Amino acid sequence: MTKPLILGVTGASGLIYAVRALKFLLDADYAIELVASKSTYMVWQAEQNIRMPANPEEQEEFWRQQAGVEKNGKLRCHPWGDVGANIASGSFRTLGMLIMPCSMSTVAKLAGGLSSDLLERAADVCLKEGRKLIIVPRETPLSLIHLRNLTSLAEAGAKIVPAIPAWYHNPQTIEDLVDFVVARALDQLDIECIPMNRWKQD
Predict the structure, then answer these.
(1) What is the per-residue pLDDT across 131-189, written as a single tens digit (0 to 9) for each?
(2) Residue 198: its pLDDT value, please?
(3) Residue 202: inside a domain, yes or no?
(4) DSSP strand E in the chain: where?
(5) C or N terminus of the chain, fewer CB within 10 Å?
(6) For residues 49 and 114, what is the distance between their CA atoms, to the nearest angstrom?
């Protein structure tokens, strides 16, 4: 059985990245352990005027509804404060972790080795266990502090995939632009489940 993948969602703008990633991963029958930070609740309210439930079972239904995937795959949602959850332990085997979108606050805490909630602890576990950690920062412009923190994470083994789309695949919709970023992030995990036009040399 394939090991699960951790999907972390922070309070950065751009929740559509997490929604689209979840859609493709569940459609491809991956098992997802999802943890959203405390700030994510506020961002859902601010960006979509939607209340994200706190109860794990209700949150699973919420994320499936947003992703438009009713049954495929396996999804388990964790409360942000549950630092005793399975993903907080290095003995729980996973494919790694994707944090999408990732706020600069979360980047700073991870770069400093801080684990004040489950999302940060799960990411810290990936680093200490040598598992794949993919960071998709969503901020612009980047200050020198941001750049230094991202450099620290890259030096510790994380892969940094900024939310910067390309145009060579001839995007027609916002989803096309978003899906390009999601696909490139999943490439770092050797997961290919998104149909896309990749670069081809004539």
Answers:
(1) 999 999 999 999 999 999 999 999 999 999 999 998 988 899 999 999 999 999 999 99
(2) 75
(3) no
(4) 5-9, 31-36, 74-78, 96-102, 133-137, 159-160
(5) C
(6) 31
> Where are the alpha helices (H) located in 55-103, listed in sequence order?
56-67
What's the burial of 7, exposed, middle or buried (CB within 10 Å: 0-12/13-18/19+)?
A: buried
pLDDT of residue 134: 98
Asked if residue 54 is part of any domain, the answer here is yes
Q: What is the span of the domain harbouring residue 28?
A: 5-187
Question: Which token pair is 86?
Answer: 């399975």
* Tens digits of residue pLDDT in 55-93: 999 999 999 999 999 999 999 999 999 999 999 999 999
- Kindly state whether residue 193 falls inside one of the protein's structural domains: no
The alpha-helical segments, DSSP class H, found in 77-173 are: 104-111, 118-129, 144-155
Count of domains observed in the chain? 1
Beta strands 74-78 and 31-36 are parallel
Whether residue 154 is contained in a domain is answered as: yes
Q: CA separation (Å) from 21 to 112, 128, 143, 144?
A: 27, 25, 27, 29
Classify the C-alpha dihedral 79-125-105-164 as positive or negative.
negative
CATH label of the domain that carries residue 146: 3.40.50.1950
